[in-house]
Structures are given as structure tokens and as C-alpha cells.
Specification:
alpha/beta; UDP N-Acetylglucosamine Acyltransferase, domain 1; 2 domains; nine-stranded mixed sheet
């Protein structure tokens, strides 16, 4: 394309619905699929779409995200391109934290002005999908739109928490409602049969067009639209532009998951271990990039494994695993059984001296000990689970919390670096 685009990725708020996975990291830095982080998805989509000027707006618990970006996305001087991290900062114009998605972009517009661009692609840092942004840019240019909103057909009975839109036959947006709850309003926004006949997603059920939180703005349109005190794109900016400019929808019918809750994160990860996952990391020609760690291949000895993803550098011995995602540097010891478990692994291998000192102090090694039984669980990085531990959320209240072990959305979560002593039963 002769016209140039930059991408702005929203680093997210506090991520309270993903807590305790966001206890020490922001949402885009949460590990995914054994070796990636959530932020790798939008960045990879950008790079595969020919967009290599990327700005990542961050605010909460950003250290691990910054480290990952700096160690992963290094561009050579010939191809150009950058992934710039822009954290909330104090300036002469203000010293407040980002108040919403629009406010985050507003506070950083002065960083973009030095770039040569005509269009801004605004993305979320906590969604799982694969998209060619060139297609939405081409539609945006050909339609002469000021703003284009990526939209996905979503069943009408499952649209809670999503922004919905009504479009005409040319996909011009004529109504936009952020997170409606009134069933009558939702029904009024259902895709009409005349439009739905051309969509695969609406053949068997009533659907609405839901915003994916992905926007393409003309440069001047974005600057003008943020010349106010509005804080959020979906709640305020997009609705305010109706009738003032040309707003269009780009309909996307592929797999898309908003990783906003512990349950959504859990289900999306385990679904990747299925024989034919809806999101396929093995797609030819459009790779998902991440940090090159130069780890050894994993060692798996005398194990029964069924529908399992195993990252690099793991040692799994005499264990039973069913529908699991095992992250880098994970260690599972003899007699252990895991079912529906996401194990994020560790940031470093333990040395023999470290293990000796820890054992003298009664601290288990990093990983999972002997003869453990763990079901429906997320084991965060660096966790130390002793021998004969049994973890299962059944019968525990949803807000259970004790000594670094939580229950959220019916899932046990062993938080980062938590020590679970020998013989613990949950």
C-alpha cells in the first residue's frame, strides 16, 4: 500500500477479572499456549500484515511486558520498524493515569506525530485471533470512511459486555450501542436476513454485529475525535461520530476470543490442545512470533499423554497428562496426574545448589512433585508444588483464597512463585 499505517496496541487496565494471573503482570504479558504471551498475537498480526511501526500503551504491572518486548522485537536497520512501549507519564499537560482507551491514545498523540502515517489501527492486547489488517485497511480506503470498526457476528444470547452496531446494506454504521442489557435493544440490533444471508456465522442462529475493539482511523479524524475529554472509544468516541462522519463496519468471520476472564483464558488455552483447534498456531505463512529462548528440547519419559501441548525445556517423568498445556521449563515428577491443567513453567532452570539449599529449608523444587493429582487448574510461573498434593476446585467457593492458592470461575489457580507444601489437599 502507498498509504501508510501505524498500529496502537492497548495494554489494558488492571485486569481485575484475570486476577491473580495479573497480580504481578499486565494482561498482555500473561503467558499463552506454552511459550507465547498474549501481546504476541496482535504484534504478529501487525507484522504479518506489513505494519511494523507499532506503539504499545501500558500502565499497570508492566515490567515483565517491557522485558518481553525488548528481548523479542528487535528490527534490523534495513527493514526498519519499531515496537515502542509508551507508559503512562507525567507531563506539563497532565499527570493522571489513563482513564480509558481513548484517553490513553490522546495522552500519547504527541509521540505519533513524528511518524509518517495516514491511518491508525487501534488494537487490543488481550485477544486471541488471526487477522490480515491489510484487508480492513483496503476496505477503509475504498469506502472512503473516516472510521472503520472490525465487527464479528455474535449470537444474540451471548453479547453481554460487547458493543453492538446496526449497519445498512453497504456496511455503513447507523447505530452503535455499547454493552446493551435490554433484550428489546439487543433484538433491534440483530443482523437482518438480507445481510445475514451472505454470512456463514448467521446461518443457524440470530446474531448481532459486535465490535472487536479494533478500529481504523484516518489520521486527522483521530486527532479531531480526541480533541475533547472523552475517555473510551466504544462508550463515547464511536457513538459521538455517528452522523458527523462516515463510519463503516468490516465483518470478520474467523475465530476471535476476548481473553477477559479466568474462564475465557482457561478454555481458550485448553482448546489449543484439541486435534483441530479453532485457533491454529500451525498455520503456514502467518507465524506467531515470540522470544527466541534457545532452550533444549523437552524430555518425556514413561508418560501417558493425551491432547497435550508441551513447551521447550520441560522434563516430564512417569506422569499422566490429559488435555493440558505445559509451559517452558516445566518439571513434572513421578506418579503425577494432571487433567485440564495449564502449567506456565518457570523463567529459569534451578541449579543443583539452589535445589539443595531449598530442600534443607523444606522448600520443594520448582515444578510439581511426586504423586500429585491436579485437575481443572492453572499453575503460574515459578510455583513449587510438593509431593502428594491434591488440587481440585470441586466443592470450593468461587472466591476461595489461601496462601497463594485461589479459586476463580471454578478453576484452581496457584499464583506465581507460590509454595504448596507436601501433602496439601484442596
Amino acid at each position: 500500500m502507498q498509504k501508510k499505517a501505524i498500529a496502537v496496541i492497548m495494554g489494558g487496565g488492571r485486569g481485575t477479572r484475570l486476577y491473580p494471573l495479573t497480580k504481578e503482570r499486565c494482561k498482555p504479558a500473561v503467558p499463552l499456549a506454552g511459550k507465547y504471551r498474549l501481546v504476541d498475537i496482535p504484534i504478529s498480526n501487525c507484522l504479518n500484515s506489513g505494519i511494523n511501526n507499532i506503539y504499545l500503551l501500558t500502565q499497570f504491572n508492566t515490567a515483565s511486558l517491557h522485558r518481553h518486548i525488548q528481548e523479542t522485537y528487535r528490527f534490523d536497520p534495513f527493514g526498519g520498524g519499531t515496537v515502542d512501549i509508551l507508559s503512562a507519564e507525567q507531563t506539563e499537560k497532565g499527570d493522571s493515569w489513563y482513564q480509558g482507551t481513548a484517553d490513553a491514545v490522546r495522552q500519547n498523540i504527541h509521540h505519533f506525530t513524528g511518524s509518517d502515517y495516514d491511518y491508525v489501527v487501534i488494537l487490543s492486547g488481550d485477544q486471541l485471533y488471526r487477522m490480515d489488517y491489510q484487508k480492513i485497511l483496503e476496505e477503509h480506503i475504498q469506502s472512503g470512511s473516516d472510521v472503520t470498526v472490525a465487527a464479528i457476528p455474535f449470537p444474540s444470547d451471548s453479547v453481554e459486555g460487547l458493543g453492538l452496531m446496526r449497519v445498512d446494506e453497504k456496511l455503513n454504521i447507523i447505530e452503535f450501542v455499547e454493552k446493551p442489557k435490554d433484550p428489546a435493544v439487543i433484538k433491534s440490533l440483530e443482523i437482518p436476513d438480507s445481510l445475514g444471508a451472505n454470512l456463514k456465522s448467521t446461518q443457524s442462529k440470530k446474531c448481532c454485529l459486535a465490535s472487536m475493539g479494533i478500529y481504523v482511523f484516518n489520521r486527522e479524524t483521530m486527532i479531531d475525535a480526541l480533541n475533547n475529554s472523552m475517555t473510551d472509544f466504544g462508550k463515547e468516541v464511536i457513538p459521538s461520530l455517528l452522523g458527523k462522519g462516515k463510519l463503516a463496519a468490516h465483518i470478520f468471520e474467523g475465530y476471535w476470543e476476548d481473553i477477559g476472564t479466568v474462564r475465557a483464558f482457561f478454555d481458550a488455552n485448553l482448546q489449543l490442545a484439541d486435534p483441530m483447534p479453532l485457533f491454529n498456531f500451525f498455520s503456514r505463512g502467518r507465524p506467531v512470533y515470540s522470544r527466541a529462548r534457545y532452550l533444549p528440547a523437552s524430555k518425556i519419559n514413561r508418560c501417558s499423554i493425551n491432547h497435550v501441548i508441551v513447551g521447550d525445556g520441560c522434563i516430564i517423568t512417569d506422569s499422566y497428562l490429559k488435555r493440558c498445556v505445559i509451559g517452558i521449563r516445566s518439571v513434572l515428577r513421578e506418579g503425577t496426574r494432571l487433567e485440564n491443567v495449564i502449567m506456565m513453567g518457570a523463567d529459569e532452570f534451578e541449579s543443583s545448589e539452589e535445589r539443595r539449599r531449598n530442600r534443607e529449608n523444606g522448600v520443594p523444587d520448582v515444578g510439581v512433585g511426586l504423586n500429585c493429582e491436579i485437575k481443572n487448574a492453572i499453575i503460574d510461573k515459578g510455583a513449587r508444588i510438593g509431593d502428594n498434593v491434591k488440587l481440585n476446585p470441586e466443592g470450593k467457593p468461587d472466591m476461595y483464597e489461601k496462601n497463594g492458592v485461589f479459586v476463580r470461575d471454578g478453576i484452581v489457580i496457584v499464583s506465581k512463585n507460590t509454595v504448596v507444601p507436601n501433602n496439601t489437599v484442596l
